[in-house]
């Protein structure tokens, strides 16, 4: 059975220190490893990079209360992978349909940049989660770091499965990995990722 990181997970000293700073600055925030959202029986797993300080770290739900979540959840609702209404809070009643959302790194990192060591330390949680999903068929990696994290979970080399927006990779006999640019404000503001581009990837799922 999949075991998520403990609320006081001590494995990454820098992230622990940052959590402590945030718990003092924002005492009403979640300020702990952010759990996955969606049922373990889902066929689709969406993997992001890490919680945002004012987003998932605040609300305790992936991609909730930040711009990336606005685009992600609106698109999931449009394509029937969610129902209800997304209202930027964990108790809005939004329900995912046949998909689950998680992050490669479960704690908020300073400047939204986890170190390679922190990514490696958190990887077993993603690896065990993938193994615990009995119906998993598709993984969507949002960004190159999430893409690499998934490949590492399967012991695969990046040179064989290069990241590219809209790319699709058969990484096992049962699981296909899809790639998208991260739906961050930076990527959408610079037009590296448009709503139409993101919807095209979700449509494949």
Give the topology, please.
Elements: H1 13-25, E1 44-48, H2 56-59, H3 67-78, E2 82-83, E3 95-96, E4 99-103, H4 116-132, E5 138-142, H5 144-153, E6 168-170, E7 176-180, H6 185-189, H7 195-204
Parallel strand pairs: 1-4, 1-5, 5-7
Antiparallel strand pairs: 2-3, 6-7
Structure commentary:
By secondary structure, the chain is α/β, with parallel strands linked by helices. It has a single domain, classed as Uracil-DNA glycosylase-like domain (Uracil-DNA Glycosylase, subunit E, 3-Layer(aba) Sandwich), CATH 3.40.470.10. Helices cover 35% and strands 13% of the residues. It has seven helices and seven strands. A hairpin with a 5-residue loop joins strand 6 and strand 7.
Q: Within the CATH hierarchy, at the fold level, what is the topology?
A: Uracil-DNA Glycosylase, subunit E
At CATH's second level, what is the architecture?
3-Layer(aba) Sandwich
Number of strand segments: 7
Number of helices: 7
Report the mean per-residue pLDDT as an integer: 96
DSSP strand content? 5-15%
Task: Give a brief description.
This protein is an alpha/beta fold and about 200 residues long. It has seven helices and seven strands. The protein is about 35% helix and about 15% strand.
Feature tags:
single chain; 205 residues; alpha/beta; Uracil-DNA Glycosylase, subunit E; five-stranded mixed β-sheet; two-stranded antiparallel sheet; 7 helices; globular
């Amino acid at each position: 059975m999949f075991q998520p990181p403990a609320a006081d997970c001590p494995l990454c000293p820098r992230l622990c220190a940052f959590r402590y700073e945030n718990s003092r600055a924002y005492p009403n925030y979640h300020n702990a490893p952010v759990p996955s959202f969606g049922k373990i029986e889902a066929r689709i797993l969406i993997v992001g990079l890490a919680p945002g300080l004012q987003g998932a770290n605040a609300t305790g739900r992936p991609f909730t209360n930040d711009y990336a979540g606005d685009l992600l959840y609106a698109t999931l609702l449009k394509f029937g992978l969610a129902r209800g209404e997304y209202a930027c809070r964990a108790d809005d009643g939004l329900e995912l349909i046949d998909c689950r959302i998680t992050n490669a790194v479960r704690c908020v990192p300073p400047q939204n940049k986890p170190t390679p060591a922190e990514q490696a330390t958190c990887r077993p949680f993603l690896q065990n989660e993938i193994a615990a999903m009995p119906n998993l068929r598709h993984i969507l990696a949002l960004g190159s770091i999430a893409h690499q994290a998934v490949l590492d979970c399967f012991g695969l080399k990046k040179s064989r499965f290069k990241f590219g927006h809209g790319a699709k990779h058969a990484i096992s006999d049962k699981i296909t990995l899809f790639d998208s640019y991260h739906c961050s404000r930076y990527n959408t503001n610079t037009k590296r990722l448009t709503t139409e581009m993101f919807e095209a990837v979700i449509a494949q799922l």
